[in-house]
Design goal:
The protein is built from five helices and no strands. The protein is mostly helical. The chain has a single domain, classed as Orthogonal Bundle (c-terminal domain of poly(a) binding protein), CATH 1.10.1900. Helix 1 crosses helix 2, helix 2 packs across helix 4 and helix 4 packs across helix 5. The model has no long low-confidence stretch (mean pLDDT about 95).
């Protein structure tokens, strides 16, 4: 009895990998084994990059808040501590946006916690 092969599924798997490898240079785009390695590495870099993006943005928000707080004679850590004690629940993203786009609003927040 001949061996059963599922050509449909195996071709679909190869097509999926080669579709992801589209736009690559040389054999990476049309040789399955080379494309598979390239795609796997690319997907792992993408996964790591999504984690790094969160870290980078948090760092940016902290820098913006610190710069704005120092204009009003206060450091970042003191400002965050006083916001916590005053029960003002603003996350760093919102606070950085206020500091960046609305200087008067940020000044009002700093005056409230002083």
């Amino acid at each position: 009895m001949p061996r059963s092969q599922n050509k449909v599924a195996s071709k679909a798997r190869r097509k999926k990998i080669l579709k992801l490898a589209k736009g690559s240079f040389g054999r990476r785009k049309n040789v399955f084994t080379v494309a598979k390695n390239s795609v796997e590495k690319g997907l792992s870099h993408a996964y790591i990059g999504r984690r790094l993006k969160k870290r980078d943005f948090r760092s940016l928000w902290i820098q913006r808040i610190n710069a704005a707080a120092r204009e009003h004679g206060m450091s970042y850590s003191v400002l965050m501590d006083r916001l916590k004690k005053a029960n003002i629940d603003l996350d760093r993203k919102a606070l950085a946006e206020i500091a960046y786009s609305d200087a008067d609003g940020f000044k009002a927040i700093v005056e409230k916690v002083k």
